[in-house]
Amino acid sequence: MEQFIYLRYQYRIYPNITQRKQMSVTADCCRFVHNYYLNMRSLAWRTQHRSMNYNACANDLKYLKLVYPWLKEADSMALQEELKDLQLSFEKFFSHSGGYPKFRSKKESGISYRTRNQNGGIRLSLDKHFINIPKIGMVRIKLSRDIPGEILNATLIRKPSGKYFVSLTLKIESASLIKGNHGMEHGLDLGLRSFYVLDDGTVAPNMKYLYETNGKLIRAQRRLSRMKKGSSNYIKQKRKVARLHEKVCFARHDYLHKESTRLAKMCSLLCIEDLNIKGMIRNHKLARSISDASWSEFTKMLEYKMPLYQGALVKVPRFYASSQTCHICGHRNPKTKDLAIRRWTCTVCGTEHDRDVNAARCLLQKGRTMLPDAA
Ligand SMILES: [Zn+2]
């Protein structure tokens, strides 16, 4: 295991009016710098077949500040970070893993920009009620949990709901995080009816409250679409939609974190299906799209949490059809492809199966054989 891991922790902050203004000034300047250098880089290429990299842009920025002195009001590190991001999006474009970088328009909804921690510019006050942010000063923070590592950078965020957050990238010593587990071995089948089922029949209920809030969200969005853009009712409704959206997002995240931590604490071995997320993303049904997003997020959480509790996560390839194979005799029953079939009887050994529990048991059996030290 590597010596350090990098995690992002998000906290609610409560900037005062002056600090809010300063944050939006920096965000505006970041957008300006992004658009300006996107344009410059495109021009340099189109007219002179010359590429303009990060260093060239950062160097040029000094002169741009003479032309537009108001750029000096912004956090200069945030402007540099913006140029780095632009560089990254160009690199993605050139390696065919992303589209051509886009111009950004002013959004009244939300803002966000990133700044670096240089010489302790980002630090907590002694009483831990405030955090110092470059060019902003001491901002009140709700320290919902401790900061267990070195702060590398901070992203300042204003959500469309009007709430403010700071998201810190932390460099954490892995050793300080490593804990033991309870030594259990499980197979886990992700599903639509319930979020997951374990091989011993344990069922994690689906995020039902999420769907309920989602229903509200859809109705609120529909109402919004019928309103006159820019009217005061429209603005009010837009806030309402944003708040509901945030609620869904938080609740989902919270649930996934709780479940993944619980499993990581419990298991020394956890076998799951290696889902082909790419193949599933093109599904427009609401329930499916939420599950798909949750599944990939959940898998990512397990990937970093399992090693922290010294457990192993095994991803069983998709072509191993866990839901169609009898875990007792290994007979494959293609009829069970139909998702509606909840229970089935193996035609060879006669065992009666619960579809999900059998799948989880198959995953556990298959996963055990995939461990490095398995014969
Ligand atoms: Zn069988």
TrEMBL record:
Query: Cas12f1-like TNB domain location, by residue?
Result: 295-361
Q: Which UniProt keywords apply?
A: DNA recombination, DNA-binding, Metal-binding, Plasmid, Transposition, Zinc
**Annotated GO MF terms:** DNA binding; metal ion binding
Q: Where is the Transposase putative helix-turn-helix domain?
A: 6-47
GO annotation, biological process:
DNA recombination; transposition
User: Which residue ranges does the record assign to the Probable transposase IS891/IS1136/IS1341 domain?
Assistant: 187-283
Q: Which family does it belong to?
A: In the C-terminal section; belongs to the transposase 35 family. In the N-terminal section; belongs to the transposase 2 family.
NCBIfam families given for it?
A: guided_TnpB (NF040570), IS200/IS605 family accessory protein TnpB-like domain (TIGR01766)
Name the chain's protein.
Transposase IS200/IS605 family
